[in-house]
Automatic annotation (TrEMBL):
GO terms, molecular function: iron ion binding
Classification lineage: Bacteria, Pseudomonadati, Pseudomonadota, Gammaproteobacteria, Vibrionales
Entry protein name: Desulfoferrodoxin N-terminal domain-containing protein
UniProt keyword terms in alphabetical order: Electron transport, Iron, Metal-binding, Transport
Signal sequence residues: none
SUPFAM superfamilies: Rubredoxin-like
Residues annotated as domain Desulfoferrodoxin N-terminal: 6-37
Pfam families: Desulfoferrod_N
Top-level taxonomic group: Bacteria
InterPro entries: Desulfoferrodoxin_N (IPR004462), Desulfoferrodoxin_N_sf (IPR038094)
Length: 174
């Protein structure tokens, strides 16, 4: 079965979602209003995603790769390769930003990442986990719970790095 790519549309009034093939024409109407295309809000293109979304995607792929059966090791290797490439790209971008911008502030960068993680931990994940529970999608709930835990650990690590970096700066200043 060849499945065609689909776009996801959502009604802003009743919140109904509809999937249509992305080569469909016309405008979808619901509740006397035009439905909004939320495909990229859900799936996103990697370049347009926030750091929080990229982190969640990488963590999701990592969890998924750990749960693959033995007969799908080629897929696991491909997922691991994707994660490594994304990590390398992120590192190169960080180095490039540091070189281009002499006023680069590691503490500010860490605070932005920490803020994003706090939003995901306090708002996003609980909302998605509750929705998965409501829809009885236990596998998705487990994946989201695992991603939540990974973000929480990442947050603790980043806060420790930020604290050490600030302590070092204060010590050097005195």
């Amino acid at each position: 079965m060849n499945e065609q790519p689909q776009d996801i549309y959502k009604c802003s009034v009743c919140l109904k979602e509809v999937k249509v093939t992305n080569n469909s024409n016309g405008t979808l109407i619901c509740c006397k209003r035009e439905m909004q295309n939320i495909t990229f809000d859900r799936l996103g293109t990697f370049k347009l995603q926030s750091l929080k979304q990229k982190s969640a995607l990488v963590q999701f792929l990592n969890i998924l790769s750990q749960q693959m059966p033995k007969n799908q090791q080629d897929n696991k290797a491909a997922v691991d390769d994707l994660i490594q490439k994304n990590s390398k790209v992120a590192l190169l971008l960080a180095k490039e930003i540091a070189v281009e911008n002499q006023g680069f502030d590691l503490n500010k960068l860490l605070m932005n990442i920490i803020d994003d993680l706090w939003v995901s931990i306090l708002i996003d994940y609980p909302q998605y986990i509750a929705q998965a529970s409501f829809e009885s999608k236990l596998e998705i709930k487990k994946l989201l719970t695992d991603a939540f835990e990974l973000d929480r650990r990442a947050l603790n690590t980043l806060e420790a790095i930020l604290y050490r970096n600030e302590s070092t700066l204060e010590f050097d200043a005195s």
